[in-house]
From TrEMBL:
Annotated stretches, region: Disordered: 1-20
Protein name: Deoxyribose-phosphate aldolase
Entry-linked SUPFAM superfamilies: alpha/beta knot (SSF75217), Nucleic acid-binding proteins (SSF50249)
Species: Podospora pseudocomata
Pfam families xrefs: Methyltrn_RNA_3
PANTHER family found in the cross-reference section: CLASS IV SAM-BINDING METHYLTRANSFERASE-RELATED, METHYLTRANSFERASE C9ORF114-RELATED
Family of this protein: Belongs to the class IV-like SAM-binding methyltransferase superfamily.
Lineage of producing organism: Eukaryota, Fungi, Dikarya, Ascomycota, Pezizomycotina
Length: 341
């Protein structure tokens, strides 16, 4: 799936007829918060679906993760491989793959599928074995998943092969009865982010996909990144200066109340990262990371990777908590670090 980002100099767009009636007269359900540059990221291991016996169980586990990302407005999810080196697939080709599920690709595929606005999925996601049980997935209904009866100042669009009515530029499907026309020539099947006009005489314009968050104050979906190991989560960060606040979750960590004793104060950060372990914990991921092995970070020293090593649910009433359950528990407890409303 491809996406398009505008050059530094923005260009105006021409729209097809119907913008005023189709969009501007609808209601706005999502209210923006303060515009923000800071982000929340989580990292989950491939082993979270290793214990799933069937494709249906793996699919619903991926769906639960996606729901947590949407509910708590998480901006990025990183999928890291914590399996033993000798068990990892070599020369994996996702386009030619039709056999057993490869965990990292499976999770990446489904999480991207769910993040994409529903009206685009048929075009951007061809039939694939990973999507065989997609009917079990619950919708995320995030702000950038459009409803025909609501208005938002931004829209996601998909460029079309058919020429626009004006004959120039590119036609874009924005999930409404009428398409819009942009002056740029962009290849078909490309996802774009558009800022919509304030009145029927105005013209929409293409913007950076992050603008709805950084300037509009809207949660605008999440990005998905794969990491080859636990250490790669940090070293291959999408942010230039990496993550400046990292939290590792473990039943061997300190209670959240001790790690962050001030309940009424948010944390100071630009990019927060919360890392979850699989059934055998983050220590298992460190054990299967050659780079961490060379550094001597194994076992109890795994906590040295993080600014905070926390137990989000002390005195749990079960021997183990699944990672998808841990996501909801941890994000509920940690949310006060960035939102104490």
């Amino acid at each position: 799936m491809s996406s398009w980002e505008p050059q530094s100099k923005k260009r105006r767009l021409d729209t097809d007829s119907g913008i005023g009636n189709g969009i501007l007269n609808t209601k706005e359900r999502f209210k923006p918060t303060s515009a923000r540059d800071w982000t929340i990221s989580i990292a989950v291991p491939t082993s979270i679906i290793a214990s799933c016996v069937t494709r249906e169980q793996r699919t619903t586990a991926a769906g639960s993760i996606a729901r947590a990302l949407a509910i708590f407005s998480v901006d990025e999810v990183v999928i890291f491989d914590d399996s033993p080196i000798e068990q990892r697939p070599r020369n994996f080709d996702p386009d030619a793959y039709t056999g057993d599920i490869e965990p990292a690709h499976f999770l990446e595929h489904l999480l991207n599928y769910l993040e994409t606005p529903p009206f685009m999925r048929k075009v951007l996601f061809p039939i694939h074995p990973n999507l065989k049980s997609q009917g079990l997935l619950h919708g995320l209904d995030m702000p950038h998943h459009p409803h025909k009866d609501e208005w938002l100042p931004y829209r996601e669009g998909l460029t079309l092969e058919a020429p626009p009515r004006s004959g120039k530029g590119t036609a874009v499907d924005i999930g409404m009865p009428e398409t819009v026309t942009i002056s740029e020539d962009i290849p078909p099947k490309t996802r774009v982010t558009l800022k919509m006009p304030d009145d029927a005489q105005g013209k929409p314009e293409p913007v950076n996909p992050a603008e709805p968050r950084t300037e509009g104050g809207y949660f605008w979906g999440y990005s998905v990144r794969k990491a080859k190991s636990l250490s790669d989560v940090f070293t291959s960060s999408a942010y230039e200066d990496g993550y400046d606040l990292s939290i590792g979750t473990s039943e061997r960590g300190v209670p959240l109340s001790k790690a962050f004793p001030n309940h009424n104060q948010t944390a100071t950060f630009n990019h927060m990262l919360i890392v979850f372990g699989g059934p055998r914990g983050l220590e298992f991921a460190a054990m299967n990371d050659p780079d961490l092995g060379q550094m001597g970070i194994q076992g109890a020293r795994t906590k040295e990777l993080f600014d905070h090593w926390v137990n989000v649910l002390p005195n749990q009433g079960t021997r183990g908590i699944r990672t998808d359950e841990s996501l909801l528990i941890a994000l509920t407890a940690l949310r006060r670090l960035w939102d104490n409303s």
